[in-house]
Amino acid sequence: VSSSKRQIVAAVVGAGFMGEVHSRAARAAGARLHSVTSLSLQSARRLAELFDFGAWGVDATESIDDAVDVVHICSPNGLHYEHALRAIEGGRAVVCEKPLATTAAHADHLAEAARARGVVTAVPFVYRYHSMVREARARIAAGNLGAVLTIDAAYLQDWLMQPSAVNWRTDAVQGGSSRAFADIGSHLCDLIEFVTGQRMESVCARTRRFYAERGNDVVGNEDSVVLLFELSGGAIGSATISQLAPGRKNALMLEVHGALESIRFEQERPDELWIGRLDESSIAVRGFESMSDDARRTSYLPAGHPLGYQDAFNALIADVYATMRGETVDGLPTFEDGARAARLTEVVLQSAREERWVQVPR
Ligand code: SOE
């Protein structure tokens, strides 16, 4: 039996919700699961048994073992820089959860170090991998919408709405100086740029920390952000980002208004794309004949078999491994995109602090 391709060996650092999502995706992409490490030995052991890792422990340096090809970093934000730099210096491919680092300077350094070392990198802006997001992007690129005029966007969750809800994210040291924007606003702004093909050029933001304390801890980062922005092609838009929106679980919503048509994507209904028209609007459901090639690439189940969040994640990790094998893929978010998100985060906080429009550096 000829083995068409050498099995990729993956290590996971961090055994929380994202560690589990990455482990499932790495396994689905055919990796051998080498080791999972976590600050909590119990969490590491739970994931090791769930996904049949070779080893588990609390020492993240085990993930840089010579046998390891790629390191998936899912540790608390404040540890990303250290864990990613160690993997890069070890010559490993690195998939690092957003935010890439809690400062733009550290994120830029990681992107530079990875470029210099020539390692494959990714920051899982996973929502790029829904087929109907690729369909929206293809329609805008093909000119179906006409000139992009305005954007109405939001990313709303409610898992931090209880004042008692404490998590490493609500601690500025472990989570970083931005929470809602760095955690989910970064996904939304990455998607706005990815779908429209335009850059965010300037923003005007206001943040709120509705609960200055949670449990016995002082909270050092924001619960919610509202944003005005201008895009490089002249469009203007607004975004509401909050993790205190009762009833909204993971509600990323993006609506783009063109001179000819509109589109609306809702992450909680990922197989659908609303097409807005002056005469008759419609809902395009994944799997139709004239779907774009790029949408078809991630549409690996036929119409009527819903694809979801983990499917999109699996497709993203499969693209990372394809890139490690020298293949060319379209739309993989790399450390360059992660560094851009970290820079945008600092611009958003600066705009809120100084109560003015701030230009986004290229
Ligand atoms: C929590 O806000 C979270 O898990 C984010 O960290 C993820 O990036 C997002 O995709 C889902 O919600």
Question: What is the secondary structure topology, with strand pairs?
Answer:
Layout: E1 9-13, H1 17-28, E2 32-37, H2 41-51, E3 55-57, E4 70-73, H3 80-89, E5 93-96, H4 104-117, E6 121-122, H5 131-141, E7 148-156, H6 172-175, H7 180-196, E8 200-208, E9 213-214, E10 217-218, E11 224-231, E12 236-242, E13 251-258, E14 262-266, E15 272-276, E16 282-285, H8 293-298, H9 309-324, H10 335-354, E17 358-359
Parallel strand pairs: 1-2, 1-4, 2-3, 4-5, 5-6, 7-12
Antiparallel strand pairs: 7-13, 8-11, 8-17, 9-10, 11-12, 13-14, 14-15, 15-16
Helix pairs in contact: 1-9, 3-4, 4-10, 5-7, 7-10
The protein binds alpha-L-sorbopyranose.
Residues 17, 157, 183-184, 187, 250 line the site of alpha-L-sorbopyranose.
Can you walk me through this structure?
With 362 residues, this protein is an alpha/beta fold. It is 33% helix and 23% strand. The chain is built from ten helices and 17 strands. β14 and β15 form a beta hairpin. The radius of gyration is 20 Å and the shape is globular. Alpha-L-sorbopyranose binds next to α7.
Structural class of the helices, strands and pairings?
Answer: alpha/beta
Low-confidence stretches: none
Radius of gyration: 20 Å
Basic shape:
globular
Biggest sheet descriptor: 9 strands, mixed
Number of beta-strand segments: 17
Helicity level: 25-40%
N- to C-terminal distance: 50 Å
Average per-residue pLDDT, rounded, comes to 96
Strand content range: 15-25%
Order of the strands making up the biggest sheet: 16-15-14-13-7-12-11-8-17
Specify the number of helices: 10
Order of helices and strands: EHEHEEHEHEHEHHEEEEEEEEEHHHE
Task: Name the hetero compounds present.
Answer: alpha-L-sorbopyranose
